[in-house]
From TrEMBL:
<dbReference type="GO" id="GO:0005829">
    <property type="term" value="C:cytosol"/>
</dbReference>
<dbReference type="InterPro" id="IPR030383">
    <property type="entry name" value="G_VLIG_dom"/>
</dbReference>
<keyword id="KW-0539">Nucleus</keyword>
<keyword id="KW-0342">GTP-binding</keyword>
<dbReference type="InterPro" id="IPR006073">
    <property type="entry name" value="GTP-bd"/>
</dbReference>
<keyword id="KW-0547">Nucleotide-binding</keyword>
<dbReference type="GO" id="GO:0005634">
    <property type="term" value="C:nucleus"/>
</dbReference>
<feature type="domain" description="VLIG-type G">
    <location>
        <begin position="632"/>
        <end position="872"/>
    </location>
</feature>
<dbReference type="Pfam" id="PF25683">
    <property type="entry name" value="URGCP_GTPase"/>
</dbReference>
<feature type="region of interest" description="Disordered">
    <location>
        <begin position="773"/>
        <end position="797"/>
    </location>
</feature>
<protein>
    <submittedName>
        <fullName>Up-regulator of cell proliferation isoform X5</fullName>
    </submittedName>
</protein>
<dbReference type="InterPro" id="IPR027417">
    <property type="entry name" value="P-loop_NTPase"/>
</dbReference>
<keyword id="KW-0963">Cytoplasm</keyword>
<dbReference type="GO" id="GO:0005525">
    <property type="term" value="F:GTP binding"/>
</dbReference>
<dbReference type="InterPro" id="IPR057365">
    <property type="entry name" value="URGCP"/>
</dbReference>
<dbReference type="Pfam" id="PF25496">
    <property type="entry name" value="URGCP"/>
</dbReference>
<comment type="similarity">
    <text>Belongs to the TRAFAC class dynamin-like GTPase superfamily. Very large inducible GTPase (VLIG) family.</text>
</comment>
Length: 874
């Protein structure tokens, strides 16, 4: 049965005489989501790699739609909401056979001698159109997802510049949910220009930043599309944005079944460019799906949180008049958008005349739009009204403050659950004590100071001596033990003990809540950004320079580093016989970290501060991981290397849905790893059970061979990361110059025969619309290395011949190894969406990487035990 028929006619309920099923249950069943009501879809389900991860085909049945939506959303595709189905015909079916089959069906229904049945049989034949409205699909998916997947869906939607769900309707259980937690992860960046003084780039949580809100609602029937009007108001010039889904977008005309009552939100954010900024400051736009008479609770909420409400209608009935009359005394400004020729003109005027004094309106608050109205002029008029409302003294609320109003009206708020609030309290006991990130690291995370850096340097010297075959240096060993004993002389501080309790004792859900609250709380005390000219907002990405020591923000990784150092110091003394194994207090720390890795959180592999690998800590963590994955131990390591600011973290996040830190050089400098699970049904075909993805972060800074120790340090780190990898993505700047340290690492590994399968990615990081100088001249990748690369070759192979780097990567000329990725943004940030071309190119790269893994083009796959040994050797 075609979903267009569901709920379209009450008479059809007789088709299900045995079981009366609600529209919501029908929709969940149609989409195959009914099995996820008791046990919700999780973030791990979203991230898991399956055979479908390598396919880019249209959905062929309603049950494919949720997974198709999630896959496209993970890839940040602007077409994620376009969920048209393509019927899967038998591959050997010839056109004549199809005609014959169709004729047989028609004859069968004719033979039934029932005209009505004959007509309905045609209406129920599958068509290439999706039977589900995209908003119904979104609501069904959110209702079937746990809190963390809901948050991920909303975060990805924000990157696609889709309108975000704010109030989620659930008619089945007779309550609606305000999605405060789901919106917590959304961060907005905009250009803030005060009336006097110098403007600056500002970044803040979408939940915490205050802005005037303007709501658009429908009363009964409106000939004007509310969502189309909103898109036109949000879009600059003649380029409307498709933030809000509407009836003219592909399958948008399909009737909604369960999404009525949904409230969506989108923001206008200024970029600092006068030719693009419709409004001088951020403005929130709210959109209620459905008629206000049927969703009075949501409408009441909008009137309490908005500075202005636009009501679109053709008719004002007596019922709606009474409801609006009850809003008497409201501080909200009301505007009507009418199509009088389609409605009862005299009745409308009569009711409006009565409402004008009640709602404190005047005749300028009534706008008329008919078919002959100039569309562009009408949009300008609406914008002028919104701008006037925003400039005047008006209500400015954050989403968090809107949630308070929702609670008073009886709406459920998603983050009010007990687990979430307990975790928040625990995290705030830590974060409220952080006033200055550097001071907190110095006073509370004491093992990461000079003692750790000195110990790391001593261990490097001991390691070099060991591999050179030199006798053990007793003085160095004694110095190492002294440094480790000095570290172990400290006790874990109160903040660290609270953190350990947060990731050890609670239930799995509470643990994840705690870590998210920690991330957000610590982000609030990050070092302030310097003022920058407006054009810098166009990039919204890291610069090509490393962060300074003082600029590194405090994050969860620093607490895990501290745990790692306690474990390192204790293990070192136990190995030397200076401490009995029975006296160990921190042996369980690696197990706690491995559980975070299993939950899909990034964990540090190489310490970005000491620029060294805490070998005992990493080995212990991997051993614990092996114990937990003993039944499925096969592993492939995929890494991404490149200079900061070349888009490698964004690339990995888009490709696999990961959470590596990104953003203007303010992320941690260390190399991080994240575990991606492979579905059991696909692991045999792919040849592995898990993929360990490593992001080199800010470790490779582009030091030249002449830089001495710094270059050697970068080359060693690059060698380690490449040596661990089966597959590597090298992300290049637009000049296509390969960092000298990476050239050096390839030459080192070539001697061992362990060069990974390598894909070079050239990303277009320079926006076509951005002012300023154009990129420097590009050099073809397959040309011999540049001057810096030649110096690296000479260091590793004095007098050696000049070969291209592509040759070192065992490139098959018949295979794709060089990828040209289009720019990330379509348009001008912060209102730009991710480019469809970027999304499609990343998907093709992902498919190529998985094909290489499946075809064995990478280094031999390894299990976790082999990886531990490889970490030790490298």
């Amino acid at each position: 049965m075609d979903a267009d028929d569901y709920g379209a006619n009450e008479a059809q309920d007789s088709d299900f005489p045995a079981v009366e099923r609600s529209r919501l249950r029908e929709m969940l069943s149609l989409l195959g989501l009914d099995t996820y009501q008791a046990h919700k879809l999780s973030l791990q389900d979203f991230l898991q790699i399956s055979s479908d991860s390598m396919k880019n085909r249209a959905p062929q049945a309603p049950r494919d739609l949720p997974w198709n939506f999630l896959r496209k959303l993970q890839a940040l595709s602007s077409e994620a909401r376009s969920t048209t189905m393509v019927l899967d015909a038998p591959p050997d079916a010839r056109p004549a056979e199809k005609e014959s089959q169709m004729e047989e069906e028609i004859i069968y229904w004719d033979a039934a001698d029932d005209l009505a049945a004959d007509i309905y049989s045609f209406s129920e034949l599958p068509t290439p159109d999706t039977p589900v409205n995209p908003l119904d699909l979104l609501c069904a998916l959110l209702l079937s997802s746990d809190s963390f997947l809901q948050q991920e869906i909303v975060h990805k939607m924000s990157l696609c510049q889709f309108a975000l769900p704010l109030v989620l309707p659930d008619s089945e259980n007779h309550y609606h949910t305000f999605l405060l937690w789901a919106l917590r992860g959304v961060v907005r960046t905009w250009w803030a220009q005060p009336p006097r003084g110098v403007g600056s780039l500002r970044e803040d949580s979408a939940v915490l930043s205050r802005a005037p809100a303007v709501a658009f609602v429908r009363m009964e029937v409106s000939s004007n599309s509310k969502s189309q009007l909103l898109n036109a108001v949000l879009g600059p010039g003649h380029r409307p944005r498709d933030c809000f889904w509407h009836r003219d977008l592909n399958v948008g005309t399909n009737p909604r079944e369960i999404a009525d009552g949904l409230v969506e939100v989108s923001w206008f954010l200024p970029s600092g460019r006068e030719d693009l900024d419709v409004f001088p400051e951020p403005v929130a736009f709210l959109n209620l799906r459905g008629d206000i008479g049927s969703h009075w609770l949501q409408f009441k909420l909008l009137t309490e949180v908005s500075s202005a409400v636009f009501i679109l209608t053709d008719n004002i009935s007596k019922k709606e008049y009474k409801l609006l009359y009850s809003m008497k005394g409201s501080a909200t400004k009301y505007y009507f958008i009418l199509s009088p020729y389609r409605g009862k003109r005299n009745a409308n005027l009569r009711f409006l005349n009565r409402l004008i004094p009640v709602l404190r309106m005047d005749h300028s608050h009534v706008l008329v739009k008919v078919s002959s109205t100039d569309g562009a002029g009408f949009v300008r008029r609406v914008r002028a009204i919104v701008a006037h409302v925003a400039r005047a003294p008006c209500r400015r609320l954050s989403v968090e403050e809107m949630a308070h109003a929702a609670r008073k009206l009886g709406l459920r708020v998603d983050e009010d659950c007990e687990e979430c609030q307990r975790a928040r309290g625990r995290a705030e006991r830590i974060t409220r004590r952080v006033k200055d990130a550097d001071a907190y690291r110095r006073d509370e995370l004491r093992l990461q100071g000079d003692a750790w850096r000195k110990a790391a340097q001593v261990e490097k010297e001991l390691c070099r001596a060991q591999w050179a075959g030199d006798p053990p240096d007793k003085e160095l060993r004694q110095r190492l033990l002294e440094l480790r004993a000095q570290q172990l002389g400290h006790e874990p501080t109160g903040g660290l003990q609270e953190f350990i309790s947060g990731i050890s004792g609670p239930a799995p859900g509470e643990k994840l809540y705690f870590l998210r609250w920690m991330e957000w709380g610590l982000a609030r005390v990050a070092p302030p950004r310097p003022r920058q000219p407006p054009e810098t907002i166009l990039a919204l990405r890291p610069k090509h320079c490393g962060a300074t020591e003082s600029s590194e923000p405090l994050g969860v990784e620093h607490f895990l580093r501290e745990m790692g150092q306690f474990y390192e110091a204790e293990s070192c003394l136990v190995e030397a016989g200076k401490l009995l194994a029975a006296q160990r207090r921190f042996a369980h720390f690696p197990g706690l970290a491995s559980e975070l890795l299993l939950k899909g959180l990034p964990v540090e592999l190489i310490d970005g501060s000491a620029r060294s690998t805490p070998l005992r800590w990493v080995s212990g963590l991997l051993r614990e991981l092996h114990a937990r994955l003993e039944r499925r131990p096969r592993l492939v390591v995929l890494s991404a290397l490149g200079l900061p600011g070349t888009g490698k973290s964004t690339l990995l996040n888009t490709m696999f849905g990961l959470r590596f830190a990104t953003g203007r050089g303010r992320g941690p400098r260390g190399a991080f790893m994240q575990l991606v699970s492979v579905a059991e049904s696909f692991s045999q075909d792919l040849g592995c059970d898990h993929i360990l993805v490593i992001d080199s972060g800010g470790l490779i800074g582009g030091a030249l061979a002449s830089a001495g120790e710094r270059f050697e340090q970068e080359a060693s780190l690059a060698t380690q990361l490449l040596g661990l990898s089966n597959v590597t993505v090298v992300s290049l700047a637009e000049t296509r110059d390969i960092p000298p340290a990476i050239v050096h690492a390839f030459l080192r590994l070539e001697k061992t025969g362990r060069v990974p399968n390598c894909q070079f990615v050239c990303q277009n990081l320079h926006d076509a619309c951005a002012p300023g100088p154009r990129p420097r001249e590009r050099r073809p990748l397959l040309d011999p290395p540049g001057e810096a690369g030649r110096a690296s070759v000479h260091m590793e192979r004095p007098g050696g011949s000049m070969r291209t780097l592509a040759g070192l990567a065992f490139c098959d000329p018949g295979k794709q190894h060089i990828w040209h990725i289009p720019g990330l943004w379509h348009g001008v940030p912060p209102m730009a969406a991710v480019s469809l071309a970027y999304s499609e190119a990343i998907f093709e790269l992902k498919r190529c990487l998985l094909e290489n893994i499946r075809n064995g083009l990478s280094n031999p796959n390894k299990n976790i035990q082999q990886l531990i040994e490889l970490v030790r050797r490298l």
